[in-house]
Specification:
The chain is α/β, with parallel strands linked by helices. 29% of the residues lie in helices and 32% in strands. It is built from 4 helices and 33 strands. The strands form 6 sheets. It has an 11-stranded mixed sheet, with no helix packed on it. Helix 3 (339-407) packs antiparallel against helix 4. 28% of the residues are buried.
């Protein structure tokens, strides 16, 4: 049956046949007319098709013979040729079985307080748990029309499952499994990890020293001044002058006093005083932010709190109960600007540069070793030649002595030749010892070269991860263009400075229940102008 795309204008051909070609030139049909000749042969029908340029996918002779002998096909069309349909490639993809959005806010109650018992939606996983599965790519197959023209296809792209510590690959190579019991994490580089947890029973101070753990860290006390905690997700009772460097979220049950926080996730705290906060996600506080610098790619949220004398840069905007007080210095708020991304890109560039410098040094040392090895190889060749030549001469002289002894020639000459054999033997032995030294040196050089090769390979892997992170950061930045908006549920005090992507506004008078949004201005005829301003609306 003819189905699918429509048919082009029918054409009457020899033998009382009507030929119709599908509009996509992927099939052709013949129908018997009133003038159909029963004498037409299979060969003739195929010749006619060839004359019309139809060369691909012609049905078998037996089917054409059946068409000729059938009493039907006067109203119903017979498909005489079918092209090869192309198969478009499909990219491989990965399905994850845990929450990969490490920037998703969680653990905040309706009144803006933080539930520190809530560990989020990511449950602890047991060893052997399937964390991700690769759905294979579909290979593309080029098609051909009935005229033999090739139909291009889009190839599918394959991907590699990326995983790190705490994970392993299944036997079939299509699943990432947990290798240990712990908390699954999707890193910015696209790798999956399972982090185990380190628990510090008390304060982080002189007794504990700095804590650096390749996993989650829970501090059941304070992080004291001068001490650092580095981990994935970091949780503590309070930060009292300490520093945190987290690849994930930071949760502080109490407050952050004179602390420095860097996080690739969200930061949660009851209050922030005289501190520096830099994070990729949201900064969520319950009570207040005082005299602090906050830079985040998400939203700065103080639903029930107050921002006081602080400098806030939040790409996705600011929401607070109150902004400023009558007696404190005014806040400076910057929205729709991604300070974190700028920092990360600069840091990525510096790290990549440092790795390339190291690689250049390692490569230079490897090339030095290569040159040394070439010199040694020449020495080996020369010494081997000396040894071979000495041994050959030794054999020749020994043969000459044997001949002379047989013929009873001069004893003095024989003695001279024996002395020469001794010299040649000594020469060969010296060459052999020198060769052994050269071989030992060559072996040591080759071992060192292997060491440098391994180091260069490790650095290349680090550089690949940095490049993946850079690409993901750029993509993430494009997907999250920012929001130039400040929402205050209570009051925003006069002199507060709000800066957007293109404009700024200094609040002239105390304003309540307001939303400040940067908008593009329009002319009287409705045309958009290249001018922006902050408009104030009620909430």
């Amino acid at each position: 049956d003819q189905s699918g795309p429509g048919l082009m204008e029918p054409e009457t051909i020899d033998g009382g046949l009507k030929l119709e070609v599908a509009s996509d030139v992927m099939s052709a049909y013949i129908t018997k007319t009133d003038h159909f000749s029963d004498d037409i042969t299979v060969v003739r029908i195929k010749e006619i098709l060839f004359e019309k340029g139809i060369v691909m996918g012609i049905v078998e002779d037996e089917m054409i013979r059946g068409f000729i002998s059938s009493s039907g096909f006067k109203t119903k069309a017979f498909m005489v040729a079918r092209g090869i349909s192309p198969i478009q490639g499909k990219d491989a993809k990965v399905e994850f079985f845990f929450n990969t959005d490490y920037l998703k806010a969680g653990g905040v109650t309706e009144d803006g307080s933080i539930d520190f018992k809530d560990r989020g939606k990511i449950p602890i996983v047991e060893e052997g748990t399937v964390l991700a599965e690769k759905i294979p790519m579909v290979e593309a197959r080029r098609g051909h029309s009935i005229y033999g023209d090739e139909i291009e296809t889009t190839p599918g792209q394959d991907i590699t499952l990326k995983f790190g510590k705490g994970c392993k690959l299944s036997e079939d190579g299509f699943k990432i499994l947990a290798a240990v019991k712990g908390f699954p994490k999707y890193a910015l580089s696209g790798h999956v990890f399972v982090h185990q947890e380190y628990v510090s029973a008390g304060d982080v101070d002189f007794e504990t020293g700095h804590i650096k753990y390749d996993g989650n860290v829970t501090v059941k006390g304070r992080i004291k001044s001068g001490f650092k905690v580095k981990g994935c997700d970091v949780q503590a009772i309070e930060v009292d002058g300490g520093q945190i460097d987290a690849d994930g979220n930071v949760r502080i049950e109490g407050g952050i006093n004179e602390g420095k926080i860097y996080a690739r996730g969200n930061v949660y705290a009851k209050f922030i005083h005289k501190s520096e906060i830099v994070c990729m996600g949201d900064v969520v506080v319950q009570k207040e932010v005082v005299d602090s610098d906050v830079e985040c790619s998400g939203t700065c949220v103080a639903e029930t709190g107050t921002l006081i004398s602080s400098r806030i840069t939040a790409k996705m905007g600011v929401t607070a109960q109150n902004i400023g007080t009558e007696t404190a210095a005014p806040n400076m708020i910057k929205v729709a600007h991604d300070a974190f991304l700028e920092r990360e890109m600069e840091k990525n560039k510096d790290l990549a540069g440092a790795i390339k410098d190291k690689m250049d040094k390692y490569d230079a040392r490897r090339n030095e070793l290569k040159e040394e090895n070439l010199v040694l190889q020449k020495q080996v060749t020369d010494l081997a030649h000396v040894q071979d030549r000495s041994q050959l001469e030794e054999r020749e002289v020994a043969a000459e002595i044997a001949e002379m002894e047989k013929s009873g020639q001069s004893a003095d000459r024989i003695s001279e030749l024996k002395e020469k054999i001794t010299q040649l033997s000594t020469q060969a032995q010296k060459a052999e010892k020198a060769l052994d030294v050269c071989f030992d040196k060559t072996e040591a050089i080759e071992e060192e070269m292997e060491t440098w090769d391994a180091k260069i390979n490790d650095l290349e892997a680090e550089l690949d991860i940095l490049n993946e992170e850079k690409a993901n950061l750029i993509e993430w930045g494009k997907d999250n263009p920012g929001k130039a908006e400040v929402v205050v549920k209570g009051a925003i005090i006069s002199e507060t400075l709000i800066r957007g992507r293109y404009s700024e506004k200094r609040v002239a008078e105390t304003t309540r229940h307001a939303r400040f949004s940067e908008v593009q201005c329009a002319a009287e005829d409705g045309k958009a102008l290249n001018i922006y301003e902050f408009q104030v609306g009620n909430i």
